Request: fold
Amino acid sequence: MNDYIEEFRSLLGQLSQDERDEAVDFYTEYLQDGGYDSYDACVRELGTPHQLARKVLADYSIRTLNEPQGNGTRQQRPKNDVKTIWLIILAVISTPVTIPLAMGIIGLSIGVFFGALGILVGLIALLVSVVFGGIGGLVVGLGVIWSDPWLGMLYIGIGLMIVGILVMLSPVFSVAFNGIIRGVTNFSRWAYQKMVPKNRAEKHGRGPRK
Reply:
């Protein structure tokens, strides 16, 4: 059992020390109470250390989504959401899927993910095209202003207008980007809760997943 717990602990590096101790203590106590002394017995009861660790990491990451957000945390939220999505994917991959409902949810999840990815790529492409359009207008305007001042000023004006529009729309792009990430995160959390049931230890007592 000790080998199982030590391997499990080594895979929880993304958690804080307190969170890691909480998870390790809970599963250690459960295995001791159940008399699961051998490594193989622990695997039969809770899955491999990798499977259990991925589940615990996903559970803790999901739990932080509902915690109060400070200003600094809000700025980090898109990054944390992407991390949560990735941890959920790893946890789901580690979970044997045998029922048609779960297979359907996986297919739907993949569709939602790639749909959101397509929207994000489209927004980025639009942003890049606007940036290059503005820069192009400025470059052309500066290039012809000496030979044709009016035409040069026209191009420079168009370039500055495009840059100004970009500056005004940047909050919209930011909100849209964060909204898409948040939507995918919420859907991933829902799919995870449908596909990854609580293990026997969590059903037996109040574990780290709350």
Remarks:
- The chain has a mean pLDDT of 76.
- The two ends are 25 Å apart (CA to CA).
- The chain has one domain: 2-204.
- Residues 2-204 form one domain.
